[in-house]
Design a protein that fits this description.
The structure is a homodimer.
Chain A: E1 2-7, H1 11-22, H2 24-31, E2 35-41, E3 55-56, H3 59-63, E4 68-73, H4 81-90, E5 94-97, H5 100-116, E6 121-122, H6 134-140, E7 146-152, H7 155-167, H8 171-180, H9 189-192, H10 195-209, E8 211-212, E9 219-220, H11 228-236, E10 239-249, E11 255-265, E12 277-284, E13 288-295, H12 299-315, E14 326-327, E15 340-349, H13 352-363, E16 367-369, E17 378-387, H14 388-396, E18 402-410
Parallel strand pairs in A: 1-2, 1-4, 2-3, 4-5, 5-6, 8-14, 9-11, 11-18
Antiparallel strand pairs in A: 7-10, 7-12, 10-11, 12-13, 15-17, 15-18, 16-17
Helix pairs in contact in A: 1-12, 2-12, 4-5, 5-10, 7-8
Amino acid sequence: MQGLAVMGHGVVGSGVVELFYMNRDSIEARAGESLELKHVLDLREFPGLAYSDKFTTDFNDILSDPEVTVVAEVMGGLKPAYDYTKQLLMAGKSVVTSNKELVAAKGAELLALAKEHNVNYMFEASVGGGIPIIRPIHQCLAANTITEILGILNGTTNFIMTKMIKEGMAFDDALALAQQLGYAERNPSADVDGHDACRKICILASIAYGKHVYPAQVRTEGITKITETDVAFAKVHGSVIKLIGRTRMQENGKVQCTVSPMLVSKESPLSMVDDVFNAIMVRGDATGDVMFYGKGAGKLPTASAVVADMIDCARHKEARKAIFWEDGAPDYVDDYKSEQMAVYVHAKAANIETAYDEVNQVFGCVEALDYADAPAHEIAFVIPKAPVGEMEEKLKSLSMQIEPINVFWVCE
Amino acid sequence: MQGLAVMGHGVVGSGVVELFYMNRDSIEARAGESLELKHVLDLREFPGLAYSDKFTTDFNDILSDPEVTVVAEVMGGLKPAYDYTKQLLMAGKSVVTSNKELVAAKGAELLALAKEHNVNYMFEASVGGGIPIIRPIHQCLAANTITEILGILNGTTNFIMTKMIKEGMAFDDALALAQQLGYAERNPSADVDGHDACRKICILASIAYGKHVYPAQVRTEGITKITETDVAFAKVHGSVIKLIGRTRMQENGKVQCTVSPMLVSKESPLSMVDDVFNAIMVRGDATGDVMFYGKGAGKLPTASAVVADMIDCARHKEARKAIFWEDGAPDYVDDYKSEQMAVYVHAKAANIETAYDEVNQVFGCVEALDYADAPAHEIAFVIPKAPVGEMEEKLKSLSMQIEPINVFWVCE
């Protein structure tokens, strides 16, 4: 018998317990051992549950229980999750988590600690909810060099973009609807400003390339500035605008990692990912494009990923799994300005004809976008692929007659 | 050091060797051990290759080499692959394969043999080429009860359907084009009659539900009868026609498993999978719908899955992995007639008005499909969800004035 504990009885934590009891037979069969849920840590009280006797408010009940071998940390946030996780790993207990904030901030350190104490630290649930992605990247694509990962990693922003694209809603209205439906928090910043997607692309970049990418190293831009006009111009381009987390290994051994709205061609399967769904496109030198699609959040999908990790830990109590990455050099994440991208520019223009004369002169031949009801004195165009830094300098050099509103990259 | 061998130097086999040498450093790092390619078995000669000295025409060179621990069987077919695989497993060597025919025909037996001899038999490459699917189903979804799997499992037929749907080509022309491009064999039966997809859904059903489903137990229908008219009627329904492998666990403990053309709603992500791409939708009670997408065939994608399995075998030389299924009872696969499905019927009708009077009377209220240039004296309609067996009986009972041309299920 191995003992389990769950820290945090919120949405995911209660889902973990529910799923454990619901599919217990098959879970134990797959773990190859009988499993018992021994403790649920939460400061709140939950009277009337079938497992009310498991609750504790004292972390030490878990830490000091020699029968507990696997702990699910589903509290979220850095405090006290970081400290608890460290103590558990040092005590020789495996920890699994859905806590992307903690993995993105402290993954390298916690993985090293797990390795040192010959236990596991697993986080399949931290990216893509119930979509299997951490293991497939690590294992199934092991024979493959991953050249690039592109992901729609945040369901809330994808829901908002879908409403803007399919129903012509304005950003504020789409956000209000997402809040009404419970998809967005009252303070939506973590989603709409891209921080949540940033943590997830950090984790994917770290696992794909073996060195930790920290959120502070990632150029992160959210979706708050996107307008209905951008959506319409993108449509003319044969594209939709999606919030994309992207990472790419360069020939110089440094990595690119960004979160930003991008124009995604309607030919790309990523363009068809709507509503709260997530999708992660993994590009390999051997596999080509492989995409993983599903609900990126929600109680049971996320809980199922947590429980799968718990099974794996229980099964491999003696044999540590190989997921690992280390810290990179301070300059391991390269300046985004060295990226070569085609770029979409939406700008105010006093005189459209002379504005195009100017941009064509500055950028070479741009692709002008236009549609019947486009606002007067606004233009949008796509600059052919070039180093982003140069393009930004040239944009600054434009005359007063052209005033950029939004500048987005075009996804390849 | 562990020794490797490759049996079969065709498209996939040569890809395995190429990939091994191309990414050898990272492959050995992930295997945790140095690896050496010791033998390549093929009856043909391949002069001038950098590894020409590895070739042998004698299987016993591999079988009797004590250094060889992992063998890739990429010969295809049952003979002599089945016999060789048995001998290797009995000799304590792990075998990995892309041979879906062999896995679908003999999986239960070979897995039992591997278990008995404490080695691995792995076949990630047998379904979906380079798409990770066997491991994700087995591991990542371990906490989940899989309620249904729906897959576009054959790239050749999906290419043909895409040409019929997007370019209005006739089946024969689309097939000829697929042959020209090398996507279809000169004898295309294995693809267009659904046998290839059948083997793959057998493997997925076996792994999802733990008991072997054999191809002969599966109602298999190909795409040869689909006409441009069907494609047009489906469009009116808001659907596309795709060849779908489908398996579902029923409450009576028996499994459904079929391969057939189905109407797939344009709302479903499966409808957007075009050209030679494959996609597998896995429905779980906890995860909801999770989809895996990518190139389902091709030299390097398939080879990358084979090599990933080889790495896993080398890494887990001492610890057998848990993939396993056993034989089911003879009636484990249930009669498809007990399935409840909505059904599309395309029929000749002498008089359209009286034909609709009749079908509405027989089936209750059907959904009539019609488009501007529809052939005279042909109708198409969708019968609401009902047991398929009953529906087939009722179809037979229709008067002479209605002559069914095609009958397809509607995907939910």
